[in-house]
């Protein structure tokens, strides 16, 4: 017997038929002898619809009331799933955020979970009742409804799994695991049996949208074992306990698996992701003196604009350099106006903005112990005539900025170059 938290996303919960399918999967898991809690998303599209109502009601809406509105999508699906489970003969009840309680801070619309009272949940699960918990919502210190930011149900599920000390958190979604890259771009992408927390974090932050980034950091911190798997399966599909999806594990677990030879196909690079949500800004002829770069980035930081890749070109003329960096596309207009206001103070000549760029990243813990990953990337792109406009690296990631028209080609050739293509 194990204690399992199961999470179902919006596509899996979209409508009565699909909720019945989900209830069947949950029931089977309980019949396998496990204690079960379920965390659900709102029906696909529902949260967008509710957000729009808020915008229509008031352009500058109060985030506390926004939370009351948008949290309702998950209230509906949690009740419906409990009802459907009861109709299948299971004992089940819903537990809203304020009932559990899922305690958060009071940062409405982007609240962070601080604590979960798990005793009542654990008792309910142990009595054979299935606990159904709406994701995305919590309760503030003042007792008001909060939400965790878009995509927050993943974080709810991991937090509940940590609180009830679950053996596993199964995240059911519309794909059957984490792939080496987007299978819609590369037909030869492979499903990965194991990904480490850090790899998943890097992949999530560079555009692989399988899990909310915050849920991955939380899983890593709380050592929650997470599996990503498909809810679109039939009755004779392999049971979740046989780990048919992708397991997100610690470095030690990966090392053990490699020793046992259960992850034979693992390559140096684990995944490739592309992100088209950044824009590039170049400031030309910035004075090459102490404080010039701080003069550019301090106002951006003060405005909460996240700068990612940064390069400073070799001084062309004596005492001047070009500075290039990226910001989220959505922040480009704000960044541009902040910098234009300060043109004289910073002392640059021209601001060039370009939002037709993409960041392509290769990720893998294997990089720690192997040289040559970056050079393979640069050479592969050069062979195809793809120009690199900026570079950034971490211990387990190399990212390059390229023309967005060349994204798909770049991902495809890199997938082949690192030996990741599935055998035909
Ligand atoms: N329903 C929320 C959203 O669409 C939370 C979630 O599904 O994870 O963002
Ligand atoms: Mg999601």
Automatic annotation (TrEMBL):
GO MF annotations in UniProt: aspartate kinase activity; ATP binding
Sorted UniProt keywords: Amino-acid biosynthesis, ATP-binding, Kinase, Lysine biosynthesis, Nucleotide-binding, Transferase
Keyword Transit peptide set for record: no
ACT domain: residues covered: 281-365
Pathway note: Amino-acid biosynthesis; L-threonine biosynthesis; L-threonine from L-aspartate: step 1/5; Amino-acid biosynthesis; L-methionine biosynthesis via de novo pathway; L-homoserine from L-aspartate: step 1/3; Amino-acid biosynthesis; L-lysine biosynthesis via DAP pathway; (S)-tetrahydrodipicolinate from L-aspartate: step 1/4
One GO BP annotation of this record: lysine biosynthetic process via diaminopimelate
EC number: 2.7.2.4
Binding site for ATP: 7-10, 173-174, 179, 184, 209-210
CDD domains with a match to the protein in the record: AAK_AKii-LysC-BS, ACT_AKii-LysC-BS-like_1, ACT_AKii-LysC-BS-like_2
PANTHER family, per database record: ASPARTATE KINASE (PTHR21499), ASPARTOKINASE (PTHR21499:SF3)
Family under the similarity heading: Belongs to the aspartokinase family.
Protein name per Swiss-Prot or TrEMBL: Aspartokinase
Organism per entry: Novosphingobium fluoreni
């Amino acid at each position: 017997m194990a204690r399992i938290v199961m999470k179902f996303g919006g596509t899996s919960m979209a409508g009565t038929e699909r909720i019945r399918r989900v209830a069947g999967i949950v029931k089977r898991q309980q019949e396998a002898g496990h204690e079960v809690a379920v965390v659900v998303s709102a029906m696909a599209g529902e949260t967008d619809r509710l957000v729009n109502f808020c915008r229509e009601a008031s352009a500058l809406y109060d985030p506390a009331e926004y939370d009351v509105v948008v949290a309702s999508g998950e209230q509906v699906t949690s009740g419906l799933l409990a009802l459907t489970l009861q109709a299948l003969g299971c004992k089940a009840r819903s537990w809203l955020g304020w009932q559990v309680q899922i305690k958060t801070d009071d940062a409405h619309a982007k609240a962070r979970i601080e604590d979960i009272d798990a005793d009542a949940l654990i008792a309910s699960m142990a009595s054979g009742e299935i606990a159904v918990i709406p994701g995305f919502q919590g309760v503030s210190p003042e007792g008001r409804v909060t939400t965790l930011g878009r995509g927050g149900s993943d974080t709810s599920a991991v937090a509940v799994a940590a609180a009830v000390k679950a053996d596993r958190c199964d995240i059911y979604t519309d794909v059957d695991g984490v792939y080496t890259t987007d299978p819609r771009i590369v037909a030869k992408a492979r499903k990965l049996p194991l990904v480490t927390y850090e790899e998943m974090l890097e992949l999530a932050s560079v555009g692989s949208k399988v899990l909310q980034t915050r849920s991955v950091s939380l899983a890593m911190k709380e050592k929650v074992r997470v599996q990503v798997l498909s809810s679109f399966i039939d009755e004779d599909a392999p049971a979740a306990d046989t780990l048919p999806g992708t397991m997100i594990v610690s470095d030690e677990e990966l090392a053990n698996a490699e020793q046992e030879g259960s992850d034979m196909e693992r390559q140096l690079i684990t995944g490739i992701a592309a992100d088209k949500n950044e824009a590039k800004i170049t400031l030309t002829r910035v004075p090459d003196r102490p404080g010039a770069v701080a003069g550019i980035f301090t106002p951006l930081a003060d405005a909460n604009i996240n700068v990612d890749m940064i390069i400073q070109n070799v001084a062309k003329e004596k005492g001047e350099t070009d500075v290039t960096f990226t910001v989220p596309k959505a922040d480009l207009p704000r960044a541009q106006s902040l910098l234009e206001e300060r043109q004289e103070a910073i002392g640059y000549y021209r601001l060039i903005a370009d939002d037709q760029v993409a960041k392509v990243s290769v990720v893998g813990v294997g990089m720690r112990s192997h040289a040559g990953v970056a050079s393979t990337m640069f050479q592969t792109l050069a062979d195809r005539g793809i120009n690199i406009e900026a570079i950034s690296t971490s211990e387990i990631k190399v990212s390059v900025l390229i023309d967005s028209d060349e994204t798909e080609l770049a991902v495809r050739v890199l997938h082949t170059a690192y030996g990741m293509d599935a055998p035909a």
